[in-house]
Amino acid sequence: xxxxxxxxxxxxxxxxxxxxxxxxxxxxxxxxxxxxxxxxxxxxxxxxxxxxxxxxxxxxxxxxxxxxxxxxxxxxxxxxxxxxxxxxxxxxxxxxxxxxxxxxxxxxxxxxxxxxxxxxxxxxxxxxxxxxxxxxxxxxxxxxxxxxxxxxxxxxxxxxxxxxxxxxxxxxxxxxxxxxxxxxxxxxxxxxxxxxxxxxxxxxxxxxxxxxxxxxxxxxxxxxxxxxxxxxxxxxxxxxxxxxxxxxxxxxxxxxxx
Length: 258
Ligand SMILES: [Zn+2]
What we know:
Bound molecules: zinc ion
Shape: elongated
CATH superfamily of the largest domain: Recombination protein O, C-terminal domain
Number of strands: 9
Structural class: alpha+beta
Number of helices: 8
C-alpha cells in the first residue's frame, strides 16, 4: 500500500495474533496489519517497567503501529493502543475463541499478504466477542472467512450431484459442502447435519446486516452441529489440528465436572 510507507517505515493499524517473550525485555509479535498483512515484529524493551509500549503489545490488542522493515523481522518503533480487548485475555472461554481465530488467520494468511476484507472481518468479530457475543461471533467468523478464503461450503444442494437435499444429508469436508443421502452412502464419510442448521449457516454467510443477527434463534443442538462441522472443516483445510479446539474441549469438561 503506497502512501503508508516512507522508505522502510510503515504506519498501520494492527492486531496482535501472537506474542512470545524474547530474552529479558523484548517480545516477538505476529501482527496482522491492515497495510502490512501478517508479519513478524520485535518490540524491544517492552517488558521493562518504564517502557511506554508496555501495555500496547498484548495479545489481541488493537492499535496504531509505526514499524521499520528489517531483513527478517519488523521492529516496532511506536505503538498506540486503540482497543486493548482486555476481556479476550481475562475470560477463559473468550480467550479460547480469540485464540481459535488467531490460529486460523495464522494458518491461512501468507506473509505480508495485505487483505483489508479479512482484517475488517477479524476486527468486527473481536468487537463482538468483547461484548456479549460468544459462539455466534465465532461462527460468523468461520463462515465469512471461509467465503473470503475461497472455501465457501456448498449448502443449498448436493455438491456432488446438484440434486435437492432431502433427509439424511451429510457435510463432507473432502467435497466442500453438503451431500445428499444417496451420494453420502457412496462417499462413506461426512457428518450428519440438519436442515435447520444448514439454514442458519447459509444465513451467516449471506447476511451483511449484523444487527439482524440478534433475531436469529439458534438451539443448543444447532450450535453444536455447526461447531463440530466447522472445526472439522478448518482442520481439513489447514491440514493440522488446532490447539484452541482441544483447549475448548478441556475447558468444557472442566466446567461439567465443577
Ligand atoms: Zn447427491
